[in-house]
Amino acid sequence: MRNAWRDMSKLEKAIVAIVEVFEEYAGTDEQKTQLSNAELGQLIKAQITSPEFKDKVDPDNIKDVMEELDKNHDGEVNFREFSQCIAGLAKAYYIKKHGKEKCRGKGRGCQDK
Amino acid sequence: MRNAWRDMSKLEKAIVAIVEVFEEYAGTDEQKTQLSNAELGQLIKAQITSPEFKDKVDPDNIKDVMEELDKNHDGEVNFREFSQCIAGLAKAYYIKKHGKEKCRGKGRGCQDK
Questions:
Q1: Which residues are in the EF-hand domain (chains A, B) (predicted)?
Q2: pLDDT band per the 50, 70, 90 thresholds, residue B11
């Protein structure tokens, strides 16, 4: 795949960054496409550092995080499971900023922060 | 919320970027927390530009994209629906690079879905 980072949009760069972070940590043992317990711990300790995200993922309790993410119970986190976790973190960050979605449809509203 | 961009990790910056892109395009009409059909079209046209992503989302057929994303059928795309779309795009990008997850290891965890 050609590297076209420079031409990518902000959204595309964000997606590529998420993939790269997964690759970096998943690649430290033989199972290059999965995060082991230890790899997940390293990823979370290094990458979830801001208070905005830390309360969603507890770096001191990787076992629980693993159990939540490992939907197919194979003891590893694959990229599909990881991307769902990222979507969850993004949603939590968004809700922190904007509040839970309430009204929709007509009217102004919906902008409670 | 304090702006601590500089202190954020690569992963956290990526998540914030995804939220910011949504906010930018969702904020152009009165429904600031939802993407209308027109806003979704603008977002996709401007942000999905690389061949790596374009074949997953067709900028010339926003109506179909909207139908696929708008899980609650309210005619708008909220952040939850958008974040699921991003997770899907990330997964597709990952599969393009690494291939589909296959069975590996010792027979455990070969539950490719």
A1: 57-92
A2: very high
A113 touches chain B (CB under 8 A): no
Among chain B residues, the shortest Cα distance to A54 is held by B12
Task: Judge whether A86 is closer than 8 Å to chain B, CB to CB.
Answer: yes
Question: In this complex, which of A52, A83, A110 lies closest to B90 when CB atoms are compared?
Answer: A83
ipTM value, please give it.
0.86
- Residues with Cβ within 8 Å of A56's Cβ and at least 6 positions away in sequence, in order, are A48, A88, A89, A92
Closest partner residue to B52 (CB to CB) among A1, A51, A105 is A1
CA B81 to chain centre: 8
Minimal C-alpha gap between A65 and chain B (Å): 17
Q: Is B50 on the interface with A (CB under 8 A)?
A: yes
Please tell me whether the overall predicted TM-score, pTM, comes out greater than 0.90 for this model: no
Residue B77 near residue B66 (C-beta atoms within 8 A)? yes
What the block records as the tokens of A70 is 């490992």
Q: Tell me the C-alpha distance between B18 and B14, whole Å.
A: 6
Q: What is the pLDDT of residues A10-57, one digit of tens each?
A: 999 999 999 999 999 999 999 999 999 999 999 999 999 998 898 888
- What residues contact residue B77 under an 8 Å CB cut-off, 6+ apart? B34, B35, B40, B66, B69, B70, B85
